[in-house]
Here is the input.
Amino acid sequence: MARDLPMNTCNKPVVLSCEKISKSFDGKTILKDVNIRLCRGELVCLLGQSGVGKTTLFHILAGLYQPEEGRVLLNGADVTGKPGKISYMLQKDLLLPYMTVLDNTAMPLIIRGEKKKDARAIASSHFADFGLEGCQKQYPNQLSGGMRQRAALLRTYLSSRGVALLDEPFSALDTLTKSAMHRWYLEVMERIELSTLFITHDMDEAIVLSDRIYIIGGRPGTVTAELSIEEPKPRPADFMLSEAFLHYKRRLVALL
Here is the structure.
């Protein structure tokens, strides 16, 4: 069952961490003394109300913002303020409508200096894993919402293999599609050995997906609690109807 853990606890190698991160804008402190760790193979959710600084924290982790205090470590190396080291997917898929799905997904490799032919070959080799086989020559407007998100997730994966930051990637999907995407993403994560830090406002989503959940709260935002979801993966299709799920949800409600 659920239990509160000491801050920043995990029993696998740490692939991404931030230490004592603080950030202000125009003299207003948005984040204060934030400490987070992501371990290899984990999916860790950041859960909290709007305005507590979750997206600002992701911008710092991705190197887009420089914190006033603290540092970001990727596999032990300091990447604070260094963009392009960690892949980051926003809520919208941001696929370019005039490019094929294959060229959209290959774009990070081309930007890194791969020849277009080689980049396309590498990207195409992952289409089956991401449930996109046969879509290479299609354009984004020919895909469903769920398929567009798969393409965006593949592009994110190819941007920086091993670690992904996802900011509410499934929030625009209908309930049934979102549920299917949850199951699919967890399967893909395990298959390609991906570690994921995931922002959500949805308690149910956090419980279904997470190995651990960080609660972000307060003004300025900080980590107020950490919760481990100990149910084994893959979780059964009826997990959300179980007493275990309700127990975790009660704990989250109390922590929030």
User: Anything to note?
Assistant: The chain has a mean pLDDT of 88. DSSP finds seven helices and eleven strands in the chain. The two ends are 18 Å apart (CA to CA).
